[in-house]
Amino acid sequence: MKGRQTTITILMADDDEDDCMLAREALAESRLANDLHIVRNGEELMDYLYQRGRYADPKSSPRPGLILLDLNMPKKDGREALKEIKNDPELRQIPVVVLTTSKAEEDIYRTYDLGANSFIIKPMTFAALVEVMRTIGKYWFEIVELPL
């Protein structure tokens, strides 16, 4: 199967600097030619998606083809942001993959009820994170058809 050549923007919402750095490195290691943008909390995520404030320029804040969402963030947590995204007709088609340290069954059920497309527990090692990113990339950018 031949993958698409189009670059797809990934928007990662995570307040952990180390996790963001590791995710960026893991995407590079897994050879995904995707554009990664990072926001640090749920309010920044919504500003990015609605192109408000410092995210007003669509050239520097393109619409994401995939959102990687941490649940536990300051200001507005991932659960609140997910609910807002999936309740908005303009945003609900963007796939949201919850990528979190939470293993709570309640979080798994609740995020799927809110419309999450996947729930992934963050791996503990860099090698495992690279494999997760490679798998996410293969699935979301080579196998499934995304709305453009």
Short note summarizing the structure:
With 148 residues, the protein is α/β, with parallel strands linked by helices. It has five helices and five strands.
Which characteristics define this entry?
disordered N terminus, 5 strands, five-stranded parallel beta sheet, 40% helix, 16% strand, single chain, 148 residues, alpha/beta, Rossmann fold
Fold blueprint:
Blueprint: E1 9-13, H1 17-29, E2 35-39, H2 42-49, E3 66-69, H3 78-87, E4 96-100, H4 105-114, E5 118-121, H5 126-143
Parallel strand pairs: 1-2, 1-3, 3-4, 4-5
Helix pairs in contact: 1-5, 2-3
Q: What count of structural domains?
A: 1
- Summarize model confidence as the mean pLDDT: 87
- Oligomeric nature of the chains: single chain
SS-based class:
alpha/beta
List the secondary-structure elements in sequence, H or E: EHEHEHEHEH
Strand content: 15-25%
N- to C-terminal distance: 20 Å
DSSP helical segment count: 5
The name CATH uses for the topology is Rossmann fold
Shape: globular
Looking at CATH, the homologous superfamily is: Response regulator
